[in-house]
From TrEMBL:
Keywords of the record: Cell membrane, Membrane, Protein transport, Transmembrane, Transmembrane helix, Transport
MotA/TolQ/ExbB proton channel domain ranges (all copies): 95-201
InterPro entries: ExbB/TolQ_transport (IPR050790), MotA_ExbB_proton_chnl (IPR002898)
Name this polypeptide is given: Biopolymer transport protein ExbB
Organism name: Salinisphaera hydrothermalis (strain C41B8)
């Protein structure tokens, strides 16, 4: 009796809930595409300016006037090689830590912060993709239960009395699947974009570390090595080690 009375409210509520989840899913897709696109454009512009700088000092100046994930990674790195990462009261103790290790840790931590920023909202999409079918199934089960109770009350067993309520209840399951499939596809697509972005940040951090290592982890007038120069030096070093 309770099911029959609540069915006109529960099933529509489930359908509206699924519609809201669908709207949020597509809105998140637009928001994340804008976020990833903006981050990629900023990183591309920053890398072009940074790797054409003539010195580390100029590269630091470019970094201070830039924004984006890679610029923030470079800022974290420059904070270490200039000593700005050390609180004044802890300067003597902190200087005992190897600067290269501090730089590596700072770059890794900044990459993790950027990753967390870019992956915001992905857990919501994953939750929608996994729960939407069950929400739809709940609406269907409740609708069928209400239809059966109503049939038991009226004693009508004709096809029209059964097919109408049951068919209406099955709409909820269909809606749940219609929400879950795009949510899962969008989640997988954005995760691939996120992994590609993190991979690019790791490559930049590796090149930045090599640059700082080449300058003795000091900020000064040392020329900034291009990415191709860093790779050439790495290749020469490997060949020299193999010859030895």
């Amino acid at each position: 009796m309770l099911s029959s009375n609540l069915t006109p409210y529960v099933v529509p509520a489930v359908l509206w809930c699924l519609i809201i989840l669908s709207v949020i899913t597509w809105a998140l897709l637009v928001i994340k595409l804008v976020q990833f696109g903006r981050a990629r454009a900023l990183d591309k512009r920053f890398q072009k300016s940074f790797w054409t700088a003539d010195s580390i000092e100029q590269g630091e100046s470019i970094t201070d006037n830039s924004s984006g994930p890679m610029a923030d990674i470079a800022k974290a790195g420059f904070a270490v090689i200039t000593g700005r990462d050390i609180a004044p009261g802890n300067k003597n103790l902190a200087h005992q830590i190897d600067r290269g290790e501090r730089l590596e840790r700072a770059l890794r931590q900044q990459i993790e912060r950027e990753r967390r920023s870019l992956e915001g909202g992905l857990a919501v999409l994953a939750s929608f993709g996994s729960t939407a079918p069950f929400i739809g199934l709940f609406g269907t089960v409740w609708g069928i239960m209400g239809a059966l109770v109503s049939i038991g009350e009226t004693g009508s067993t004709g096809l029209q009395a059964v097919a109408g309520p049951v068919g209406h209840a099955l709409i909820a399951t269909g809606m749940g699947i219609a929400v879950a499939v795009p949510a899962v596809l969008i989640y997988n697509f954005l995760v691939r974009r996120l992994k590609a972005g993190v991979h690019s940040m790791n490559d930049f951090a590796h090149d930045f570390y090599a640059l700082c290592q080449q300058s003795g982890f000091q900020s000064g007038d040392a020329p900034v090595m291009r990415q191709s120069d860093l790779k050439d030096n790495a290749t020469v070093g490997q060949k020299t080690h193999a010859t030895a």
